[in-house]
Amino acid sequence: MNKLTLVCLITTLSIAACGGSGGSSDSALTPTPEPAPTPEVEISTLPNVTGFDIVSDIINLDLNRDGLEDLVYVRTPEEPYYQGAYFQALINNGDRTFTDQSTTYFPNLTTNWRWIEKVYLVDINGDGHKDIIPHLDMDFESPMPPLIQADDGVFSMANDQVLIDNAGAMLPLDVDKDGDIDIIVRKVANWGDETLQQHQLQLLLNNNNTNFSDAGIVSTDTRMGWNNAAFVYSPVILDINKDSYPDIIYGGARWEGANWVDKRTSMTVFLNNQDNTYYESTNTVFSDPIPSYTLSRELVKADFDSNGEEDILVANTGYDVEPWNGENNGILFNNGAGELKEQRGSIETHDYRGMTHSGDVADIDADGDIDIIYNDILGLDTTNETKIRILKNDGAGNFTNQNFTLPTQYTTDGSWGSTATLLVDLNKDGYPEIVLGGMGADAASLIIWNDGSGHY
Fold first, then answer.
1. Distance separating alpha carbons of residues 143 and 145, to the nearest angstrom
2. Which residues does residue 134 pair with via DSSP β-bridges, in sequence order?
3. Confidence band (pLDDT; 50, 70, 90) for 15?
4. Nearest CA to 110 among 133, 84, 136, 140?
5. pLDDT over 70 (residue 2)
6. I need a surface site. Which of 103, 176, 225, 285 has the fewest CB within 10 A?
7. Could you tell me the pLDDT band of residue 220, with boundaries at 50, 70 and 90?
8. Residue 222 backbone dihedrals phi, psi, to 5 degrees
9. Average model confidence (pLDDT) across the chain
10. Which residues neighbour 99 within 8 Å (Cβ) at sequence distance 6 or greater?
């Protein structure tokens, strides 16, 4: 079925009072007001794609130009693990249902690519349409090049040879502030070497939206070896030092020899030199101690404390080995003076042990500030019922847990889980829905509809 509607039914019980023994009372009884009806909570189930059952990312855009936001699910197989990529186009029908039109909007896209961990939506050719920049940093085998969107919403593979040859850990940004989108590609020199492994940034320069040229390596991390992140999943762009040029921030996970390791690694910052080069500036941006995590899975920027500066949400998975205990999340608050400082809150907000595989931010209740959704697969402080954590903001960066619980059909045996999250308004009522991507054939992808007042 396409929809699962959970209706909380309230039964009103009327109670009549009588006078004392031996007589009756003429005094009028004060009527007991009926409680306000509990809002209907609605969950829609989205179609799966057999053979590509894990969702690694979700994006929204109006593919058919009807004014409604459609969904694109980025998928990969369960078996063979990570071997393949599929783009699923779900067209919004406007009645809380969606139609799969993948072959219409991704008609000639083969699936024999390595999995895609994240995609960025930017216009790289200046035609006014958002293109898709895949980001793959865990494996350099068969990475997908960018996808270009045509006037009719149809996507096709970029034919620029520089983009094709350098596909992989791509990050789109306007490095030189000339009005077009360049691409930074993160490389690793001396991969696997305990002391010499080193991160590098390669610049693909956009030539006035006509083609790209390879400007080569434009920055090298001064920190080397296994003590730093090996894999980086979700870099974020932010002008930290207020010079109007985009800087780069990322976390990641350590890899020593042939295995993940249960060790924290610090965040990394590259500042823009304003000459098409970058310099590693982690110690300048972060006051002691530098925030460190075992596996940073998702970074999202937003102004959480309403000071006019964008902060960074850091959602972390933790050590990706059984028993998958998870680790804390955090917010890197921006003071507007070129510094970021971590806050973890409490066990009720960010400082809990959850295997947070994704998260997103939006103004859930339309009160003018940015709220947070965490999406946990497992974790010491996570139950089957509390895998989706909703945190509402008071406007100053202080959050309250809404204690949201999943319906019984998604919690009974613990098999349901989600690996991707998106907050987006799908029915144009001004309130965002929670869009979730299933993590396997037995885990449905869902939309949890906002009731129009900030509740789910």
1. 7
2. 119
3. very low
4. 84
5. no
6. 103
7. confident
8. -75, -15
9. 91
10. 90, 91, 93
**Both tokens assigned to 132:** 């898709």
- Alpha helical stretches, state H, 229-316: 282-285
Mean per-residue pLDDT, 359-382: 98
Specify the residue for token string 């955090």: 330
pTM for this prediction: 0.90
Residue 368: strand pairing partners: none
Q: Where are the domains of the chain?
A: 110-448
The yes or no reply on domain 110-448 and CATH 2.30.30 is no
Show the tokens assigned to 64: 């058919």
Q: Provide long-range contacts, Cβ within 8 A and 24+ apart, for 393-400.
A: 393/304, 393/369, 394/369, 395/305, 395/306, 395/367, 395/368, 395/369, 396/305, 396/306, 397/304, 397/305, 397/306, 397/311, 397/331, 397/333, 397/343, 399/345, 399/349, 399/350, 399/371, 399/372, 400/348, 400/349
Query: 415-443, pLDDT tens digit by residue?
Result: 999 999 999 999 999 999 999 999 999 99
CA-to-CA distance for 456 and 448, rounded, in angstroms?
7
pLDDT average, residue stretch 361-374: 98
- What does the pLDDT look like over 259-286, one tens digit per residue? 989 999 999 999 999 999 999 999 999 9
Q: What are the C-alpha distances in Å from 110 to residues 74, 84, 151, 217, 421?
A: 13, 9, 21, 30, 25
Can you list the alpha helix ranges (DSSP code H) found in 110-201?
Answer: 161-165
DSSP string, 340-399: EEEE---TTTTSS-B-EEEEEEE-TTSSSS-EEEEEES--TT--STTSEEEEEE-SSS-E
Q: How remote is the C-alpha of 96 from its chain's centroid? A: 22
**Residue 289 burial (CB count, 10 A):** 8
Q: Cβ atoms within 10 A of the Cβ of 328, count?
A: 21
Residue 141 in contact with residue 242, Cβ under 8 Å? no
Rounded Cα distance, 380 and 134, in Å: 32
By residue count, the chain amounts to: 456
Cα distances from 327 to residues 15, 221, 344, 352, 414, in angstroms, run: 51, 26, 11, 7, 20
